[in-house]
Amino acid sequence: MARFRGWIQAGAVLFTNLHLPNFIKGGIYQGKGKNVCVPGLNCYSCPAASGACPIGAFQAVAGSSKFRFSYYISGFLILLGVLLGRLICGFLCPFGWFQELLHRIPTRKLSTKKLRPLTYLKYVILLAMVVLLPAIAVNDVGMGDPFFCKYLCPQGVLEGAIPLALVNSGIRAALGKLFTWKLCILLAVTALSILFYRPFCKWLCPLGAFYALFNKVSLLRMKVDANACISCGKCARACGMDVDVTKTPDHAECIRCGKCVLACPTGAVHFRYGFGDGSETKGTITAETNMEESN
Amino acid sequence: MQPVFVQKGERKLFQSKKAMIQMILLAVGAAMLCYGVWRGEVQIVLSKAVRLCLECVGIG
Q1: Which of A37, A57, A247 sits opposite B1 (nearest CB)?
Q2: Would the CB atoms of A79 and B26 count as touching at under 8 Å?
Q3: For residues A29 and A49, what is the distance between their CA atoms, to the nearest angstrom?
Q4: Distance of residue A271 Cα from the nearest chain B Cα, in angstroms
Q5: How far apart, in whole angstroms, are the C-alpha atoms of residue A177 and residue A165?
Q6: Which pLDDT does position A294 carry in this prediction?
Q7: A93 contact partners, CB below 8 Å, separation of at least 6
Q8: How high is the mean pLDDT of chain A?
Q9: How many CA atoms lie within 13 A of B14 on its CB side?
């Protein structure tokens, strides 16, 4: 599966943006497909978007005059989180793929290992900008702004504002300071993505933060066969998310990209799907084994 | 650091506990999704998603 990740990512981007002719028309798809959310971060103002963005949809419900929390979106994300965990980040997210493509630009690459505390920032963003502020900071009619979409998300500019402004003069004329601010964020994320591996996913993405909460209980897991592992460390060095799969196979930052699987010279690292921790094989390394050892 | 292992039957306890947590979470997720659909959140999602999101593109 890991070998075909690039193709799967491209397919997922196409699947979440099926209505490509809308890029020329300058409008957005308005069909019933937008009742349902897509799994990755994909702005519903992208002309081609075939579904709703889960983060935008959550804020739309929480910021509505009728509700303060979205059970629909939370339930949807919990299901995806348990079924796939952060595999969605590694395989299905359009903005994750965008950052990966930028990272392929041949320049000097920098490590994010020393910036690990920043990974907690995305949880603060999820709680503050997605869950709390749209529900609490409301206007006279009880409606709140989608704070994350409005002030932080670069995907709306990349997929929505830029393509729409190119073909629609009305939208182009209406862009103001907020667009400039968000364009600066997009440019910063773009520049950082060239130097660092997936900076937005690591530090800012609230959707990644939500899925990260479920990595430990996800049905999809990483497994290391201890009988085959020679402790060469190649898996840890191959990981762009700074995870050592032999120590913490269910780490919240692991996006299940499978680079460790490909890097392992003995085939000791592999995916496993199913209920339980899947450690039928004697000597298989799991999150619990390391936890027990530390106790 | 060398990888560490569990060698005993405690793994079964972990397995069943974890499987139970996974099943409970799947049930909770499905229940929340259905409750959200029942109380009409889907209409709000659709009405937001089919219009140009001004905040998202930087107009709002």
Answers
A1: A247
A2: yes
A3: 7
A4: 17
A5: 15
A6: 43
A7: A12, A39, A40, A41, A42, A201, A207, A208
A8: 93
A9: 19
Q: Which residues of B touch A154 (CB under 8 A)?
A: none
pTM, two decimals, is: 0.91
Find the closest chain B residue to A51 by CA distance: B49
| Tokens standing for residue A142 | 């009880």
Pick from A28, A79, A157: which is nearest to B58 by CB?
A157
With CB atoms and an 8 Å threshold, state whether B44 touches A73.
Answer: no
Cα A146 to Cα A270: distance, rounded to the nearest angstrom: 39
SS3 (DSSP) at A138: strand
Rounded CA-CA distance A108/A86 in Å is 27
What's residue A2's pLDDT?
77
**Domain locations in chain A as residue ranges:** 2-212, 220-294
pLDDT per residue as tens digits for the range A90-103: 999 999 999 999 99
> CA–CA separation, A35 vs A52, rounded Å?
7
| Chain B residues touching residue A45 (CB < 8 angstroms) | 52-53, 56-57
Tell the burial category of A277 from Cβ atoms under 10 Å away from its Cβ (0-12, 13-18, 19+).
Answer: buried
Please name the member of B29, B46, B53 whose beta carbon is closest to the beta carbon of A156.
B53
Stretch (H or E) spanning A271:
strand A269-273
CA atoms within 13 A on the CB side of A61: 24
Q: Which of A60-64, A273-277, A278-282 has the highest mean predicted lDDT (pLDDT)?
A: A60-64
Strand partners, A270: A223
Q: Which residue has the tokens 């503050």?
A: A128
Q: Looking at beta carbons, which residues of chain B come within 8 Å of A219?
A: 22
**Do residues A221 and A278 touch, judged by C-beta distance below 8 A?**
yes
Domain A220-294 in CATH 3.30.420: no
Q: What is the pLDDT of residues A263-279, one digit of tens each?
A: 999 999 999 999 987 55
